[in-house]
Recover the amino acids of this structure.
């Protein structure tokens, strides 16, 4: 049966995450509902990168199998977007090989976490207001240290269903753009709550609450109780999911 990818972007504020959950409104449940309304049949979607409640995405993917012809049909995308809430958008639907998998075929994911330090009414729901002195140089040293490690157990929330905690972080840095402090991280995969754990713990480095040596010790303990996951979700964006073929 033909397989298709759906590229979506969304504002996660009103949703309990990306993946379908019992008795909860999620990105997946809304997209599946729109497909069912339009085509009058049920669709089972498989998701690429799970984002937590309140987290946004500029790009994420589902895949599904169907005999309904979708390719190059912009009308279907337009009609599905008309059904979906305003905070979820289907960008395109395209045909892929029958063995293509939107989760397992992804080679990298990119996240950004946005922080602002001067009160701004246009950022409060899309960034984290953190009006405290930060040593960005030390935070970047902590970010660089992550490239030397592969086991990120300390930055994975408990009760996560994974076989291992190994991640290949390819880029990790703090940058400043338009008066906003941004943590940018690219990895082949991410663990549950991982980016928030990294950001929260590096903010402790930046405020002088822990040293770089203590940050390294937190990584090496492989104990998530030592990391700080307390930063809010609205500042976290899944920027891009990368594949070899497109």
């Amino acid at each position: 049966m033909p397989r298709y990818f759906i590229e979506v972007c969304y504002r996660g504020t009103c949703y309990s995450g990306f993946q379908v959950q019992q008795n909860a409104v999620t990105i997946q449940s809304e997209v599946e509902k729109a497909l069912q309304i339009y085509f009058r049949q049920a669709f089972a979607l498989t998701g690429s990168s799970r984002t937590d409640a309140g987290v946004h995405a500029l790009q994420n993917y589902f895949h599904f199998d169907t005999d309904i012809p979708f390719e190059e049909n912009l009308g279907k995308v337009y009609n599905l977007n008309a059904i979906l809430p305003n905070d979820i958008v289907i960008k395109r639907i395209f045909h892929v090989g029958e063995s293509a998998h939107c989760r397992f075929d992804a080679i990298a994911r990119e996240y950004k976490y946005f922080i602002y330090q001067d009160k701004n009414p246009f950022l409060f729901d899309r960034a984290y207001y953190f009006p405290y002195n930060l040593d960005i140089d030390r935070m970047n040293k902590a970010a660089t240290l992550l490239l030397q490690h592969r086991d990120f157990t300390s930055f994975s929330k408990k009760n996560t269903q994974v076989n291992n905690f190994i991640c290949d972080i390819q880029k990790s840095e703090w940058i400043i753009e338009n008066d906003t402090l941004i943590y940018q991280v690219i990895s082949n995969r991410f663990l549950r709550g991982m980016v928030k754990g990294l950001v929260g713990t590096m903010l402790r480095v930046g405020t002088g609450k822990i040293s770089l040596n203590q940050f390294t010790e937190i990584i090496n303990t492989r104990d998530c109780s030592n990391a700080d996951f307390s930063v809010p979700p609205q500042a976290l964006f899944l920027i891009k999911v990368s594949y070899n073929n497109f």
